[in-house]
Amino acid sequence: MRADKATNLDDFKQAARRYLPRMIFDYIEGAAEDELGLSRNRAAFQSIELVPRYLRDVSSVDQSASLLGRTHALPVGIAPTGMAGITRRDADLLLAEAAHRAGTPFILSGASNSSIEKIAQIAPSAWYQIYVPKREDIRRDQIRRIGDAGLETLVFTVDIPIYSKRERDIRSGWVRPYKPALRSRIEALRHPLWLLNFFRNGIPTLENWLPYCPPGSGPMDVTGFFAEQAFAVQTWDLLRDMRDQFKGKLVLKGILSAEDAAMAVEAGVDGIIVSNHGGRQFDKAPAALTVLPEVCDAVAGRIPVMIDSGITRGSDVVAALCLGASFAFVGRATLYAVASHGQAGVERVLEILKQEIYLAMSSIGCTKLEQLDRSYLR
Ligand SMILES: Cc1cc2nc3c(=O)[nH]c(=O)nc-3n(C[C@H](O)[C@H](O)[C@H](O)COP(=O)(O)O)c2cc1C
Questions:
Q1: Ranges assigned E (strand) in the chain
Q2: Is the CB of 348 under 6 A from ligand 1?
Q3: Which of the listed residues 207, 316, 364, 376 has the most CB atoms within 10 Å of its CB?
Q4: Looking at ligand 1, which atom is closest to the CA of residue 80?
């Protein structure tokens, strides 16, 4: 399949399933424990009905979305995904470039394989997501580097106070010290294109952590250092400290409670992303979409509320905006696309989402994102 022949996001998931060894596909697709959070995310979007409204002029639908002082070409961007480079060489750069060309933000993961500095050069509109290290000097240095590189937005992911239990990864051996099970190694032989890429380029490094490791450290040393450093004890005091340090826009990712959302506003953050990390952290956590309305009520328009977790259609984005979100992000969808088709795949995912958002908005008779509200929901 050529990237431009994909009709929906699932086409890329199936292409990635063929291209990637099962162990890497499972790393992306998998979630915590019984993976109920994963199905809950999808079920929440599937249960939403939007009311079609006709006899309205929908000859021009405007998808431009204002967010944190910038205007984006569509209301959906790319969520941070760690170790993207294991799917394809320079995957972070390809994701960043595709998002930049489409006019939407790309969030570089704190466990990325490309550095803040490289990403800022090709996508100055990118955001950086920090995994707060135990060592304060490293935290301060990472925050300094974001500013020096010219990136405006820092995302603090709060839903990882601990490493979660992802059982697919435990079984396949995709956990430290990364010794793939024999079964996983044999299965990988059925994916020669990925293997070729892997043997040519080797294991990708967590580039943002390299400067803090002893000279000559290899990718596994850096991963070990990251595992030692991540994560600091995360508290509201730490957040306030980071708020003082970072002069740009500070966004909290992983908020799922109205009370936490209100406290975040009090602490001076500029935005929050309602997210259950795609079901990957805590299996009993609610779907992000389910708690979105109460979080929006608590925030009462003081800062933008964004969402991710479970979006696979443009109409999902429209539903989230009707429930009060200002913006949405996708994680797995663009990662599958970069794995199977590189930058062209990611560009196609964003194009498909844009077209589906247009279709949904036209069907409910709404031509501007700001006009979307709960009255469109059944
Ligand atoms: C393979 C993978 C790696 C991820 N790595 C990170 C990460 O480094 N930092 C982070 O904040 N979220 C991470 N996430 C979570 C995503 O940012 C996002 O919350 C989630 O994927 C959204 O759900 P979706 O995949 O259903 O779109 C990761 C998700 C996946 C699938």
A1: 65-67, 70-72, 76-78, 107-108, 127-130, 153-157, 249-255, 271-274, 305-307, 327-330
A2: no
A3: 316
A4: 17
Residue nearest to atom 29 of ligand 1 (CA): 81
Q: What is the pLDDT of residues 290-332, one digit of tens each?
A: 999 999 999 999 999 999 999 999 999 999 999 999 999 999 9
Kindly name the residue from 72, 100, 191, 277 that is annotated as catalytic. 277
Output the residue whose Cα is nearest ligand 1's atom 11: 157
Beta strands 65-67 and 70-72 are antiparallel
Cβ of 72 below 6 Å from ligand 1 = no
Topology of the domain comprising 3-376: TIM Barrel (3.20.20)
Across the strands, what pairs with 128?
Answer: 108, 154
For the beta carbon of residue 52, count every other beta carbon within 10 angstroms: 12
Cis before 231 (ω within 30): yes
Instruction: Report which residue type is found at 162.
Output: I
